[in-house]
Design a protein that fits this description.
The complex is a heterodimer.
Chain A: E1 4-7, E2 10-17, E3 51-54, H1 63-72, E4 79-82, H2 87-96, E5 100-102, E6 114-118, E7 123-126
Parallel strand pairs in A: 2-3, 3-4, 4-5
Antiparallel strand pairs in A: 1-5, 2-6, 6-7
Helix pairs in contact in A: 1-2
Chain B: H1 5-11, H2 17-32, E1 38-40, E2 43-46, H3 51-67, E3 75-78, H4 95-110, E4 135-136, H5 139-149, H6 158-167, E5 169-171, E6 185-190, H7 196-210, E7 215-218, H8 225-238, E8 245-246, E9 262-267, H9 268-278, E10 286-289, H10 296-306, E11 315-319, H11 321-330, H12 332-338, E12 341-345, E13 361-364, H13 367-377, E14 380-383, H14 386-391
Parallel strand pairs in B: 2-3, 2-4, 6-7, 6-9, 7-8, 10-11, 10-13, 11-12, 13-14
Antiparallel strand pairs in B: 1-5
The chains are: A alpha/beta, B alpha/beta.
């Protein structure tokens, strides 16, 4: 799959997929990397070292700082894949230096899929290799 | 996107790592939104100042930038902080919170940012001209600058506004372009709108109806800049409205063609229902005015209402430090304090930790505050106009 580079870099890892938009501010705990938004489909799951796949961000613009904080705390996802990246996630990914791509059909990815992300070229591949 | 030779050098890191990182953010955002080039900006308003909002990640980010020598290139003002930056101790703001807050302000100051701590920069010395390109965050200030002044800014987030301040540039897209400033929906107001709270209730409704579209409002015959501040703030909170036009009142309304646009009517009944929706309680623990920060006119009005009276519950009026200096000199601060009220500078009810200060029901006349207080501050909101709210408190 080919999309658009939001922030360059390469990563491989296991997908964590949300069909719902994600709010980093108030939605993810910056000290644990766990989704804490009540009723969110990923509530209780940790995004650390995952390839974090969701349609787009939502909520407060302070969410950018939360992404930066997750990276500083060693709890950031290895890469972000969006349907359409809005400014909050784009800003956060760029500040934190997290490889990110958008314009991807995220319905084609399931939680647990092994992914190879090349954000330099905006590509995502499903991998059969075990990591 | 077209970049000048000098801008290419920034992007290549020839002007240092900080500028490279910040300029990369701007060029990325420009690419995402199909900007054709970078444009110089006249001023910046930076949001994300309260420790309550940005927490330790924000604090560390800002200190890191300041220590690495980041310096702003244009006039840059700051949004409200989480406390009165001078009287925090006597107002009982928590000490650990206050220490972190002061570190945030120090980092901003090191970057050359004017530590104004207000959401109304246009009232105290950051006033763009009609058509000027600026990069502002703070949704109510964005709305005021675009709509009432006719300056041009997108709804920036804290970091993108800061990046614009450090580079002196912003990507040319969105509301910087004339073709993106035309109305998309007409709001016909068939109700009598006169008080600050009326304008807040109307703004709340319009924001919900139009979400992030540009409304063209008819049926408003007069409004002060205070009323427009209230209207725009509420609209930007319940929706994401960054620009509105009011027929014959806001500057760009004169050129706008609204033929064929969808029309939505707002009746007196709708306004009454908006009040009922925003008003969730009674018997408040505290009454807070000044969202957005109060103008001189609003403080004079409050002082007149409470002069020689005694207030039953605490009453705060939030404003900028600059405005407080003037009202101190006018003797209004002592009038309000004698009645049992307080003029609180640098902060407001939304970004200060009032839920940790023993308050659970707060009365406001602001549509924006009424929207945010339940979620951000766990408050039950009493919504009303200033006359009714004050009358209840006077013995």
């Amino acid at each position: 799959m080919k999309g658009r580079t939001i922030f360059p870099g390469k990563a491989h890892g296991v997908a964590l997929v949300s069909q719902e938009p994600v709010s980093f501010y108030g939605g993810i705990d910056v000290t644990t990397g766990i989704v804490i938004e009540k009723g969110h489909e990923l509530e209780g799951q940790c995004i650390k070292d995952k390839i974090f796949v969701f349609p787009q961000g939502k909520g407060s613009t302070v969410g950018s700082y939360v992404l930066y904080g997750l990276k500083k705390n060693g709890l950031a996802p290895k890469a972000i894949i969006n349907k359409e990246t809005e400014t909050i996630v784009a800003t956060g990914a760029i500040l934190a230096g997290i490889p990110a791509i958008d314009g991807i059909d995220i319905n084609a990815i399931k939680t647990g899929d092994k992914l190879v992300v090349d954000a330099d070229n905006g590509t995502v591949k499903l991998s059969r290799k075990t990591f | 996107m077209y970049l000048t030779r000098e801008q290419e050098q920034i992007l290549n890191g020839e002007k240092g790592e900080i500028l490279q990182r910040m300029f990369r953010l701007l060029t990325r955002l420009g690419d995402i939104y199909n900007a054709d080039k970078m444009i110089p900006i006249g001023s910046v308003q930076v949001a994300g100042v309260s420790y309550k909002s940005i927490g330790d990640p924000g604090l560390e980010f800002l200190e890191d930038l300041a220590q690495k020598g980041a310096r702003v290139q244009v006039l840059t003002f700051l949004n409200p902080a989480g406390m009165d930056l001078e009287a925090w101790d006597t107002l009982n703001f928590p000490r650990d919170f206050s220490q972190k807050q002061l570190r945030i302000i120090k980092a901003f100051k090191q970057m050359g940012i004017v530590p104004t701590a207000t959401c109304t920069p246009y009232l105290i010395g950051n006033l763009p001209r009609f058509g000027e390109h600026i990069a502002w965050s703070e949704s109510s200030a964005v709305s005021f600058a675009n709509s009432v002044i006719g300056a041009r800014t997108n709804r920036e987030g804290g970091p993108s506004a800061l990046a614009a301040a450090l580079c002196g540039l912003t990507p040319n897209y969105g509301l910087h372009l004339s073709q993106n400033r035309i109305p998309e929906v007409v709001i016909e107001v068939k109700a009598h709108i006169s008080t600050f709270a009326d304008f807040g209730a109307l703004g709340h409704l319009i924001g919900k109806y139009v979400r992030n579209k540009i409304p063209y409002i008819t049926g408003i015959t007069d409004a002060t800049t205070d009323h427009l501040k209230s209207l725009g703030a509420a609209m930007a909170a319940s929706g994401a409205v960054a620009l509105y036009h009011i027929k014959d009142i806001t500057p760009e309304s004169y050129h706008m063609d609204v033929k064929g646009l969808e029309k939505i009517q707002v009746s007196q009944k709708d306004i009454k229902e908006a009040y009922e929706l925003l008003n969730q309680g009674s018997n408040p623990d505290i009454i807070i005015f000044g969202c957005p920060h109060s103008s001189l006119r609003e403080i004079i009005e409050l002082a007149k209402k409470v002069e020689g009276k005694k207030l039953k519950k605490p009453v705060w009026i939030c404003t900028s430090r600059a405005m407080k200096e003037i009202v101190d000199r006018m003797g209004l601060t002592s009038i309000i304090e004698k009645a049992g009220g307080k003029i609180v500078a640098d902060t407001c009810m939304v970004v200060s930790p009032i839920e940790k200060m023993g308050y659970s029901t707060t009365a406001v006349n602001s549509g924006k505050a009424a929207q945010y207080l339940p979620g951000f501050c766990k408050q039950t909101v009493v919504y009303g106009n200033i006359d009714d709210l004050i009358k209840e408190q006077i013995t």
